[in-house]
């Protein structure tokens, strides 16, 4: 068996260009209505119309194993629950600068700073989110789907492209839903 040396990549080698991070009107990170709706749905585990501190911990705990309670409270704006409107108010006009949310999210999947998603981390995350046992075949399909440049692995740029495609699909889906003709009420029998 041949051992390969693990390649480490520094943050500067991962090609983070903060100038390309979309900005809102206050110069902070742009967060769209679709992103807020998707995030809210992801964290509202009980479908109550509220994100609770407990649900936030359940979801983020999959990605961040040792996150302190103080950080969860900060993310919840020191509240025990939050509505979609409160989340929108918190995020839409943020003034967060010098931050690339996609690169930060990518770090979760690349904990060893190799520049590529760690397949076993990907498997673990999907399993811990409740998708059941992820077979090697399933894992191969996940990697193939995310590997936009077809080099056999998921880089930060692949990750960006995958998220951008997902946003386009979500936006198209919400547009189709909004434009769908409403069904006419059945006419009353007799007359």
Automatic annotation (TrEMBL):
SUPFAM superfamilies in UniProt: EF-hand
Domain spans labelled EF-hand: 31-66, 134-169
SMART domains for this protein: EFh
Region (Disordered): 167-191
Keywords associated with the record: Calcium, Repeat
One CC-aspect GO term: myosin II complex
Listed PANTHER family: CALMODULIN LIKE 3, MYOSIN LIGHT CHAIN 1, 3
Protein name: Calmodulin
Species the sequence originates in: Triparma columacea
